[in-house]
What does this fold into?
Amino acid sequence: MQYKSATTHQSRPEFGIVEASNLCKSFGAARALCDVSFRIDPGEFVAVLGANGAGKTTLIRLLAGLARPSSGEIFIKGLSVRRHPSETRRAVGVMSHHIYLYDDLTAEENLRFYARMFEAPQARAETLLKEVGLWEHRRKRIRTFSRGMAQRVSLARALLHDPEILLLDEPFTGLDVYAREKFKSMLDKFLDEKRTVILTLHDIDYALEKAQRVLILRHGRLVCDRPVDRLFRTEIMETLLPSEPSLK
Amino acid sequence: MKKSLVILAAFTYIGMTAALYAAFLYAPTERTMGEIQRIFYFHVPAAWVSFLAFAVVFVGGIAFLRTGKSHWDVLAYSAGEVGVFFLTLVLVTGPLWAKPVWNVFWTWDARLTTSLVLWLIFIAYLMLRSSLAGEKGARFAAVFGIIGFLDVPLVYMSIRWWRTLHPAPVLGGKSGSGLETPMLVTLMIALVGFTLLLILLLFINYKISRAEKDLELFEKEWRNGEI
Amino acid sequence: MELRSKEILNGMLLFSLVVAVIFGFIFEPGSEELKTAGPGILWILLVFSGNIGLARSFNREYENAMMQGLLLCPIDRSVIFPAKWIGNMIFISFELLILIPLLVILFDLPLGEHRLSLAAVLLLGVAGYSAVGTLFSTIAAHCRAREVMLPLLLFPVTVPILLAGVKASALMMTDAGLKEAVSWVKILAAVDVIFITASFLLYEHIVEE
It folds into this structure.
């Protein structure tokens, strides 16, 4: 099976670095995502917008391999996420409002633990702790950290294995001003490094300023997929606006 | 759909009426136990039917985990509810029968204890279900239902090693527990009647659960302004 | 797979002492009563320590959605269950290792002559109990009333383990000898095999969506 898809990969060089085809996630009659397809090229910086409950988080979870789509398939670097869970997971770094860290371990211990899991060099934990500005706090437990600090450790965690693709689910939520600015500057750095970044957020202005491309979800459907220079603020507002409750 | 429901209900009605008639009028009064023995025609079928319902929970759970289709989950859950209902019936009729015959309401014998443990397991199943909604709840309940059902023979075997007061299995063919023909016929009728009742209840409960789910969804969508 | 913190160890020691003192109130040390209740006490201890160990395990998983964190790692998902199971097993056994000698020293808990086989039976019990426990603690971690839900799910299902375990150890602790206990040990082992296999196979379904 592995051999077969490896050849598929080679025979289809036109694959983007992340490709979703006809993704659906539903349970019974309730659907979170419906027929979502897109293709993202290496180095793209993509913002996913949408009202609450539009399916943004579900999309990130599917891309991260945390949830299985009801139908449809995801390819990361041309490999099916379903068939090659380990390889595709190595290529992505994930950050969400959960920090995925043990409260009772120190920042350093947490990172070393993950470094072992990802088979990344232990020295990488050190470098990253310095990079997110928490080197002097490395011996403190996560429990004692503020939200912003913990989120920064979590970012270091997501970067441990030097992933080509970053999936960020509302990285600015719950952060104080300082942490937010720090974060934004780190995102700029990813941009320079030509990493592929997919992030969901509420901040339209930021999306319009930085992102190259915007995907908008509405009730689980992809209603807009356009480069940012061909998109207007009012247009986005319209799609984000929840319609008034009314009976058929 | 409606027509099949009516037909099923009609058959169940006939079956249950026949069972009542047979149990009270046709079957002879048992020599040593007297009239109270007639409870047997309800006790045993209810136990049988609850076991059948839990088997549906088990099968539905496996099918759900394999396919991810929510109707399997709804079926399993409906069966769980109906099963607990019948098992409660068993646990109530049991002591009523036991008191005059064994002179105690309850003994810690194999089948009694197994039923009680089984009842606890599936009460926990229903509680788990009510405390977790959505797909996650469905998956977790399926997993628990499967383990719970697998547990039944284990509980029974482990408890059976203690000496048991309970009458030996009636249909197992062991000598000394044999029934007179009219009694056997009555039991058979009651079994059929109860099984039909199970299917009917399961059917109705399944419909209700589905409708509930749809309603919930409709409400949610309406509130989100999707309709 | 997981590193343990010091507080838990301290908590464990303290817990053991509290349990020992409580048993001291209930039973006269060295009395006849204690002799008959002995096997029961051992298995109640197992349930106690089991619950503490499992609660620790699921709180850890629950905080910061650590389970998802593990799922992000490029490890085979089928290793998560064995790792957690063995972790829980070690924790519970370790706790029993402190508790039982403590009770023996303080209250002269009669263990009988076949101590090694007794330990083996307890270990079998721990293995099965923590297998189902690992599965159910992950389930309970997602429920609203997590602390209540775990015993509610776990106790009825583990009845066969406790029953067979108590019987086997009771026979070992009296003079009846090992021969009679063997059949109970066999049952216990069979139950273990079924529970462990089922938990292993089903675990995958509860960690992934």
Notes: Residues 177-193 of chain A form the longest helix (17 residues). DSSP finds nine helices and ten strands in chain A. The two ends of chain A are 49 Å apart (CA to CA). Confidence is low (pLDDT under 50) at residues 1-13, 243-248 of chain A.
